[in-house]
């Protein structure tokens, strides 16, 4: 027999409002959703919510990340110099962090030496190896000022930078080191003459610059140099000589790593170290000693006892040295926060690292635009 | 390029040329966040091919529109990332400049103090 009271109860029934049903995700699921747990066999819970309804039955509000993205996304710069940047990126999925990293390494353009014209090389380093070494030298110039040199193009002042190297080790002197500082920028383009076809035709050089590069406003009081002037290219014995011209063009790291504008770009998730119980006295000292990164610290309790605390969890490398100890393993919980990335970018000198990152994001935007254009 | 059927446009595969995991993984993430999507995934048919296949199946909306929405949203999110990042870097640089100025200020004050003290000392000697 259903009474009136039962009916009212059934009408107003809402499982989320019962006093002993916690709001949102229960803690064990919350942990699963937001933390990676390194285990000896393999890390656990590495994936982000697989689909939009992933936690809908239990959680509700956390199920769709996109909606909260605009409020929650945060960037925190830790350090930034001419060549390096470290920043925290919070509230974003790893697919983004990884896309940016991949683009930084392989798709942000830079200038690198692509052609080496060797007039004379009597050094020990053979031509191919020498050319390869020269190709890898980073050039400190903004690639956005240049165009790509496509197959049918003539090398001109908008797409090519020419350097010249002419060193000779005089007889009777000691061995000579050839450093990148010997590479000299030729703003007027190549100086080597092509073999003239007709006898009285004016001989041409290997580039066709219509004006000198140092007359362009970008380079007028900002001559093009290399990022490092102390890289060893070759060593010359007395009597040996190298004479060559190096032509740099624009390219991307996907084609060849020499065009990668970063030494490297990497990220890691923020580590989280949690003590599951009180670690005291001798055990505490053992814990502090076990960690090579000095993550833990000892805190004096009033009664002369000691207690371990987590002092610098950010320094943890998840080496798992602390959980190798049979006793400590029950006290320490290691995790990584899934949506908090510690991002590092090392620039090779063409652009400052913060500009590189913005360029990378722009490239991802362009990719989306391209797909949109193709679909419409 | 789209491979679908004429009768049911809620299921379709798309081939994006000259793209790889970089875009496809991000797009897949966006698609999976969309409640209209029942299945979304991508694959690269062969490592030496320069393209990805993206599969989209929806509850009824045209797959093409859903994919377009995902790209659109991805673009907006990127824009947001860029603006937040630029702001953070600008703030950091301002802060850094301020710290440096303060440091210089302190150095200067120290120098000043040292000078004064030296002066005082030399005066003392003269007095004696
Ligand atoms: S995992 Fe390694 S670095 Fe991290 S707390 Fe344990 S011992 Fe220290």
Descriptive account of the structure:
Chain A: This is DNA-directed RNA polymerases I and III subunit RPAC1. Chain A: Pfam families: RNA_pol_A_bac, RNA_pol_L. Chain A: One of its GO terms (cellular component) is RNA polymerase I complex. The complex is a heterodimer of chains A (about 375) and B (about 130). Chain A is of the alpha+beta class and about 375 residues long. Chain A has two domains: about 30-110 and about 260-275 and about 330-375, Gyrase A, domain 2 (2-Layer Sandwich), CATH 3.30.1360; about 110-260, RNA Polymerase Alpha Subunit, Chain A, domain 2 (Beta Complex), CATH 2.170.120.12. Chain A has helices at about 5-10, 25-35, 65-70, 95-105, 125-135, 280-290, 355-375, and strands spanning about 35, 75-80, 85-90, 110-120, 140, 160-170, 175-180, 185, 225, 230-235, 240-250, 260-275, 295-300, 305-310, 330-345. In chain A, strands 1, 2, 3, 12 and 15 form a five-stranded antiparallel beta sheet that branches. In chain A, strands 4-11-6-8 form a four-stranded antiparallel beta sheet, covered by helices on one side. A two-stranded antiparallel sheet of chain A has the order 5-9. The termini of chain A are far apart. The mean pLDDT of chain A is about 90. Chain B has a domain at about 1-90: RNA polymerase, RBP11-like subunit (Gyrase A, domain 2, 2-Layer Sandwich). Chain B has helices spanning about 20-30, 65-125, and strands at about 1-5, 10-15, 35-45, 50-60. The longest helix of chain B is centred in the last third of the chain and has 65 residues, at about 65-125. The chains are: A alpha+beta (about 375), B alpha+beta (about 130). Iron/sulfur cluster (SF4) binds near residues 273, 290, 293, 318 and 334 of chain A.
